[in-house]
C-alpha cells in the first residue's frame, strides 16, 4: 500500500470514529450498555481522538515539500497561525475550557447553554473557522498537508451543520434567533462584537 493511500485511509477512519463517538445516538447506546450516566465521556473521547489522530499523523512521513513561503513571509504566516491558536483558546474559555477538554466531570447528557457574545457574536462556529484558517495559513505546503486540509475543511463544515441541527433541536427558537443574527462561518465585515 502506498504511503498516501495509508494516510488517506487512516484519516478517513479517524473522521468516521471521531464523528460516531460524538453522535448523540452512539453516546445514548453506550450509556444504555454501561447502565449508568456517562460521567467523563468527554475526557475519554478527547484522549482517544488525540491518540487516534497521532496514529494518523505517523503515516506518510516522507511526503514531498511542494512550496515553502520564503523569508519573512514564512514568519508572518506562522505568527498568524499562532494568533488563530490564541483566539481559539479565548473562544474556548468563553464556553468553558474544562467542559471542552472534559476535565470537569459531568453527565454527557447535560443540556448545553448558548453563548452569543465575544467570538460567538462574530460567527456561530468560531473554532471551525479558526481551524480552517490555521490549515490555510501554513507556510510549508507538503502533499500530506494538502490532503489533510482537503479532508478537514469539508469535515469541519459538515460538523458545524450537524451541530446546528443538534442545537436547533435542543434550544429551538432561541437558536433559530441566534442563526438569524450571527453568520454561520464567514464573519460580516460591518458586524460589531458584543462584550462578554
Which range does the strand content fall in?
A: under 5%
Q: Largest sheet, described in full?
A: 2 strands, antiparallel
| SSE topology string | HHHEHHHEHH
Helix proportion of residues, in percent?
Answer: 55-70%
Average residue pLDDT: 90
In total, the number of strands is 2
Q: Total number of helical segments?
A: 8
SS-derived structural category: mainly alpha
Overall, the morphology is globular
Strand order of the largest sheet: 1-2
Account of the protein in words:
The protein has 196 residues and is mostly helical. The chain has one domain. The protein has 8 helices and 2 strands, in the order αααβαααβαα. Strands 1-2 form a two-stranded antiparallel sheet. The longest helix is centred in the last third of the chain and has 29 residues. It is globular and about 50 Å long. The mean pLDDT is 90.
What key attributes describe this structure?
196 residues, two-stranded antiparallel sheet, mainly alpha
What is the element layout, followed by pairings?
Blueprint: H1 3-22, H2 24-34, H3 41-57, E1 65-68, H4 72-95, H5 97-101, H6 126-136, E2 140-142, H7 143-171, H8 173-181
Antiparallel strand pairs: 1-2
Helix pairs in contact: 1-3, 1-7, 4-6, 6-7, 7-8
Summarize this, please?
The protein has 196 residues and is mainly alpha-helical. The chain has one domain (3-181).
Amino acid at each position: 500500500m502506498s504511503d498516501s493511500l495509508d494516510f488517506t485511509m487512516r484519516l478517513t477512519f479517524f473522521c468516521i470514529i471521531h464523528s460516531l463517538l460524538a453522535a448523540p445516538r452512539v453516546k445514548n447506546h453506550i450509556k444504555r450498555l454501561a447502565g449508568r450516566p456517562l460521567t467523563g465521556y468527554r475526557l475519554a473521547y478527547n484522549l482517544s481522538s488525540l491518540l487516534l489522530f497521532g496514529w494518523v499523523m505517523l503515516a506518510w512521513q516522507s511526503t514531498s515539500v511542494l512550496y515553502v513561503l520564503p523569508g519573512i513571509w514564512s514568519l508572518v504566516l506562522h505568527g498568524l497561525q499562532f494568533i488563530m491558536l490564541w483566539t481559539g483558546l479565548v473562544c474556548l474559555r468563553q464556553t468553558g475550557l474544562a467542559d471542552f477538554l472534559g476535565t470537569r466531570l459531568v453527565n454527557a447528557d447535560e443540556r448545553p447553554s448558548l453563548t452569543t457574545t465575544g467570538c460567538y457574536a462574530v460567527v456561530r462556529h468560531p473554532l471551525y473557522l479558526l481551524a480552517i484558517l490555521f490549515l490555510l495559513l501554513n507556510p510549508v505546503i507538503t502533499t500530506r498537508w494538502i490532503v489533510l486540509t482537503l479532508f478537514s475543511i469539508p469535515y469541519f463544515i459538515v460538523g458545524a451543520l450537524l451541530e446546528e441541527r443538534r442545537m436547533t433541536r435542543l434550544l429551538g427558537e432561541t437558536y433559530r434567533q441566534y442563526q438569524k443574527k450571527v453568520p454561520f462561518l464567514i464573519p460580516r465585515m460591518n458586524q460589531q462584537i458584543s462584550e462578554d
